[in-house]
């Protein structure tokens, strides 16, 4: 068989496979519609069913990754199934998800990575607005940044948890790649200012010191806002990611300029629904301790005694008094697990106040 004949045969086989894939996707979508009808039928009139189940989606993605035999890697296969599930869920009920805008931010990228591109993503001007929109029921979920591997905690998010009674329903981790972007009118040899979010400027500090030491660094509300400003100026550049570059039609003058190649940001999914255990979960709590010697030791002792692994602990000033603090703690396990219940009971006995922010599946993607 000639090479040309072999190519024709392979293309014909691919066409046949594509038709089978389409049939199976359509069958899955039909099943999703049936699920919606069954859920609605089982409820009292006027009661809205819960269509999005974080624990179910996490299980499906992990299951697919376990079954994957290549040649596509696990994350690539999971992303494909994420989009299929997103489209099928939209047939039941399109999700509205608030994120830190404007359009083109890393927070929007995190929202689409977690929920897929079939959701309705709603930009908000501030983190606190995301919390208010979710609390008011204007959107089902919100996506907020909580920590960066280079610069640490996002304090606006931690403070918002003190003011609002919402549940953490999930998490997503996003590799952050920063690019130096310019517009079509930019004179690259005359750049006198660089716009970006304060966190991004900090994450690229060494690169800027080495390549643009005398350029003014201007912090703005978001990387997307930085990209928007640059589009209309001739003497400025922006530090932003791929989404902002594509959205505003900017050119990458330099790519991946972050000081640490493993630069990542963790985002939390906030909502109003409790999430059942999946067997691979995390729990987040806020604790206010009495101001006395050994308070932190007493707080951490139950975790040590029960062999519970902490993943993060942060301290923020309390709103209740001067020089008093609250602790934000993330740890592995679900609040319904017997060992975790025992830890929470012991902490509750020692603390002034304990607030469980939620238990949720560990990030899959």
CATH class of the largest domain: Alpha Beta
Number of domains: 3
The count of DSSP E runs of length 2 or more, i.e. the number of strands, is 15
- Elements, N to C (H/E): HHHEHEHEEHEEEHHEHEHEEEHEEHE
Stretches with pLDDT under 50, minimum 5 residues:
none
CATH A-level architecture of the largest domain: 3-Layer(aba) Sandwich
The CATH topology label of the largest domain is D-Maltodextrin-Binding Protein, domain 2
| Rg, Å, rounded | 24 Å
Beta-strand percent range: 25-35%
The fourth-level CATH homologous superfamily of the largest domain is: Periplasmic binding protein-like II
Q: If you average the pLDDT, what whole number results? A: 93
Characterize the structure shown.
- With 365 residues, this protein is α/β, with parallel strands linked by helices.
- The protein has three domains: 52-175, D-Maltodextrin-Binding Protein, domain 2 (3-Layer(aba) Sandwich), CATH 3.40.190.10; 179-254, D-Maltodextrin-Binding Protein, domain 2 (3-Layer(aba) Sandwich); 274-361, 2-Layer Sandwich (Alpha-Beta Plaits).
- Helix content is 42%, strand content 26%.
- The protein has helices at 3-41, 54-67, 74-92, 106-115, 127-136, 155-163, 198-203, 205-211, 223-231, 242-248, 295-305, 338-350; strands at 96-100, 120-124, 141-148, 152-153, 167-175, 179-182, 193-197, 216-220, 236-240, 251-254, 264-271, 281-289, 310-317, 325-332, 351-361.
- Strands 1, 2, 3, 4, 5 and 11 form a six-stranded mixed beta sheet that branches. It has a five-stranded mixed beta sheet with strand order 8-7-9-6-10.
- Strand 3 (141-148) and strand 4 form a beta hairpin.
- Helix 9 (223-231) packs parallel to helix 10 (242-248) and helix 11 (295-305) runs antiparallel to helix 12.
- The radius of gyration is 24 Å and the shape is globular.
- The two termini are 43 Å apart.
- The model has no long low-confidence stretch (mean pLDDT 93).
